[in-house]
Amino acid sequence: MRPAFSGGPMKQVKRVARPLAPLNLHVGAQAVWEKRLVRIEALSSASQIYVRCIGTGDTACVSLQDLSVPRPLNSRGPIRAATEPEADAKAVEWCTQLKQLEAKQCAAEDVARQMHVSVKTVMRRLSNFRDNPLPGAQVKGVPGPPRGSKRLTPAQEAIVAHVIDQDYLRPERRTIRAVVRRIEQECRAAKVKPPEMRAVRARIRAREPLQVAKARLGPHEAEAKQAPSIRGVETSRALELVQIDHALIDLILVTPGEGRQVIGRPWITLAIDVHTRCILGYYLGFEYPNQTAVGLCLEHACLPKGSWLKRLEVDVDYPMCGRMECVAWDNGKTFQALGVQAQCERYGIARRTRPPYKPHFGAYIERYIGTLMGKVHMLPGTTFSNSKQRGDYPSERRAVMTLREFERWVAYAIAGEYHHSPHRGLNGLTPMQAWTKAWAGPRGECQLPPLISDPREFMLGFLPAKMRKVTREGLALHGLRYWDPALAPLINSQQLYRVHYHQGDLSRVYLYVDGHHVDIPLLDRTQPPFSFYELQEARRAMRAEGRRAQDETALFSALDKQRQIEDIAAATSKKARRKQALRPQASLPAKTAVDFSRPVTPIDTNWEDEL
User: Fold this and answer.
1) I want to staple 213 with a disulfide (CB 3.0 to 4.6 A). Which of 226, 240, 345, 594 is the partner?
2) Which residues contact 511 (CB under 8 A, 6 or more apart)?
3) How many angstroms separate the CA atoms of 329 and 14, rounded?
4) Superfamily per CATH, domain 242-438
5) Per residue in 63-103, pLDDT tens?
6) Around Cβ 606, how many Cβ atoms within 10 Å?
């Protein structure tokens, strides 16, 4: 009689597999060898057992360790876990009674009276005891069909499997409800009773999860979400491996001053040391990630940051610096540029490229970017991760931070907070503690990381470059003329020289000659700094007007007019304000034009006579 429901919470039954019968080896017994059913023909020793394969008749000599017990086809269902001592004691008592019955020490009626069951139950249990004499085989099973058993007809199984393959395992990612409706249609057409939705769900869950993910999400996303990731990148020392990546910040910035008008979202390029989880450096700017941003990030990561912290007026300890042994990044165009690859080779920095469409290979930098964005989402003017999270939040109306203010905030977030927070991947140490520990000698003395001896040459080597000849007119790059008296000995040498340029400031270029970079300014010294992006915009505007885009004077005139238009439009146009923010800032005042055709007048050194 089923007990009445007491109204309390139902206790979930924990199921365990029923133990298999022991393997009793004797001539004529069956066993499993290499997934084949065999019969023992002869026994010489534990290492010499002669078996014959059932079905093929092949014979072999095997060892005891190669044999296993065959699982019976009509195996009984699972039993309850070892949480009911009464059931286990009852099973032991059954084994004792059945062992006496098997030895004919008592009758079946006596066992039935002793166990308070019918004789039919005793005989059924005796049959089970002969198959498996272990007490676990006599434990009362869990009611209901065994887990994994199928109760649909073969026709229903075939229709369900066909529709799952054709409709569910597809990139369109159809819902289970749509698959069930299609199964119902197929079953009615075949005059078969359609199965319930839970039966369809069970057969979808029974499929291999990785294969289902590959069919619905594609191989790359499936590998990232479903494939096992049991071991991370292994490092043994600081600066052994540094991961670098770009990210678009989920925050809208504004212009400085009283107006505080919206500009847009900045980009950040970050570098993290895998061994200590320290952020070695970063570069923040409005321009789309380019080769120059990679160079500036590496410069910030490798060099001491004292002057940078002083310029930002940030009072934190940021000792992380040094030449890394290897950098890991993705297949982005900025990282795969030949200039970046060559400069890494010159300084002994190995490169490790992430496989395409596998972001989990850059897990450390990706994880920190997610951590940083979580903090950014608490700032006024955040855009959150997507429009669903943003909801009705007025990001532009709430924006208040300028680029410089946000750069100071990032410095405090990294050097002031993150580097001093316990990290689970460091066994509870903070990144600062891990960095200090990494540079402690065997006797506790402080050691220093390897530094870049010539920071200027290191940074300029990462900038994009073109090969050019030096002529009487100087250097020609991007349709502009550059000249410096240092070029005079190189005129008509018929040799190609590597000329680097900063994409954010084309007012000067850097000629690589004799192992050093020489600054070569524009021939027209009156021009303020301008970016490569502004030059392209001016050329497009001139071509649209039907004018020649190679006329240097006209180009500078177009640049000046564009800036005037942008300054006027900045009051109402966010795009114009963004262009204003992308302009390079002049580090030195503009110089007057120099006529190099006139001879140089020597300096009068007799000024002491006038005193």
Assistant:
1) 226
2) 475, 486, 487, 497, 498, 499, 517, 518, 520
3) 47
4) Ribonuclease H-like superfamily/Ribonuclease H (3.30.420.10)
5) 888 888 776 645 555 555 544 677 778 888 888 888 888 88
6) 6
